Amino acid sequence: MLEYMHQGGYIMWVIAAMSVAALAVVIERLFFFHKASTDPEVLETRFGEALASGNEENARKVLSSSKSSLNRIFTTAYVHWGIDGENMKLLVEQQVRREIYRWEKNLWLLELVGKLAPLLGLLGTVLGMVEMFHSLHAGGQITGSAVTGGIWKALFTTVAGLTVAIPVIFIHGLLVSQIDKEEETLNRGADYIITEHMMRSGNSNV
User: Fold this and answer.
1) pTM of the predicted model, to two decimals?
2) What local confidence, expressed as pLDDT, does residue 55 receive?
3) Which of 90, 114, 122, 155 has the most crowded CB, counting CB atoms within 10 A?
4) Most confident by average pLDDT, 45-49, 131-135, 174-178
């Protein structure tokens, strides 16, 4: 492996660093997605039952049972339960945007790596080809083995760039898809909590 890195030059090390950064982001995001997810139907049912019984302590226990994004939205709404319907709607919508921002954190880096890695690989190949032809021209002797050997070494960076970019782009797409699903879940949860607030408070201004 180190031999290939040496053959590819400094651009290979740049691509390797980008791959490590992308891997770190993927691992961090997967842990976050797991922690920030919950079953919306279970949460809504348990919270609704607590509201119906008028048991504030039980409602707080339900909301504090998880650190999921939906729990955080419900908690924010419940803390401000006494406000009017219009302000509750604005508060919940603002909290949904905040949670989506948390879900999208650092995904820009994956997108950047997916776009830059192949370009850096191509740049490394072009620079390798330039160096090879310059050496052949300076040496005055051009042989088939020298040309093919130089091209073979120059292509290392292109292979490395594509090897990094393809899985990164694929994983980025999966994560974005998961965020889209979560956004729909949070919006439905927001509608639920706004409706509950309207019903419990008797406020029709939502």
Assistant:
1) 0.82
2) 85
3) 114
4) 174-178
Q: Which two tokens mark 17?
A: 């660093």
Residue 162, class by beta-carbon neighbours within 10 Å (0-12 exposed, 13-18 middle, 19+ buried)? Answer: middle
Other CB atoms within 10 A of residue 140 CB: 6
Question: Is the alpha carbon torsion for 93, 96, 100, 105 positive or negative?
Answer: positive
pLDDT per residue over 111-154, tens digit each?
A: 999 999 999 988 888 877 776 666 666 655 555 554 555 566 67
CA 121, 126, 127, 133 dihedral sign is positive
Q: DSSP labels for the chain?
A: -HHHHHHH-HHHHHHHHHHHHHHHHHHHHHHHHHHH---HHHHHHHHHHHHHHT-HHHHHHHHTT---HHHHHHHHHHHTTTS-HHHHHHHHHHHHHHHHHHHHTTHHHHHHHHHHHHHHHHHHHHHHHHHHHHHHHHH----HHHHHHHHHHHTHHHHHHHHHHHHHHHHHHHHHHHHHHHHHHHHHHHHHHHHHHHHHHT----
